[in-house]
Write a structure and sequence with these properties.
The protein has three helices and seven strands; from the N terminus they run βββββαββαα. By secondary structure, it is mainly β.
Length: about 140
C-alpha cells in the first residue's frame, strides 16, 4: 500500500513509520546538506540499528534502487517533486518535495516500464570489437 513518509523541514528530523507487509517500523532521519545542496535521509530499524546512511532525496528515482536486498524487503522509496522546483532549498522538504513508500512490486504494477527493445543503436557494435590481424 502506498503511503507518504511524513518528513518535513522543521521541528524533529526523525519520524518512525510502520511500513507494514512484514517490514515493520523504520525510522527516517532527514538532514539538509548545504555543501552539496539537497536533503538526505538515513534509515534505522525498530531497534535503532542503522540500515543505510546518506540517501539523497532525488526525484523521481527509488532512492534505494542500488540496494536490491533492501528493495526486496522494503519496496520503493520514491521522491516526489510536487511542484517541479527540486529539493535544493532547505525549507522544501514536506512542502514541495515528498517521500513515498510503495510495497515491493507495487510501483512497477502501477507504472509498468515501457515494453520493447528500446531505441536502436546508431552504430554497429561489431565494428567496435572487430579483431585486427597482428602485424608481422
Amino acid at each position: 500500500m502506498t503511503q507518504v513518509i511524513p518528513l518535513n523541514s522543521d521541528g524533529s528530523r526523525r519520524v518512525s513509520v510502520d511500513l507494514g507487509d512484514g517490514v515493520g517500523v523504520i525510522t527516517f532521519r532527514s538532514r539538509y546538506n548545504s555543501t552539496v545542496p539537497g536533503w538526505y535521509v538515513d534509515l534505522y530499524d525498530a531497534d535503532g540499528s542503522s540500515i543505510v546512511f546518506g540517501l539523497g532525496l532525488v526525484a523521481p528515482h527509488n532512492i534505494i534502487r542500488h540496494l536490491p536486498r533492501l528493495v526486496a524487503r522494503i519496496g520503493d522509496l520514491r521522491v516526489i517533486d510536487i511542484d517541479g522546483k527540486g529539493n535544493i532549498n532547505p525549507d522544501r522538504l514536506g512542502v514541495g518535495v515528498g517521500l513515498m513508500h510503495y510495497a515491493p512490486g507495487e510501483f512497477n504494477s502501477l507504472y509498468p516500464a515501457p515494453s520493447g527493445e528500446g531505441r536502436p543503436l546508431g552504430y554497429n557494435l561489431s565494428d567496435l570489437f572487430t579483431p585486427t590481424e597482428p602485424t608481422p
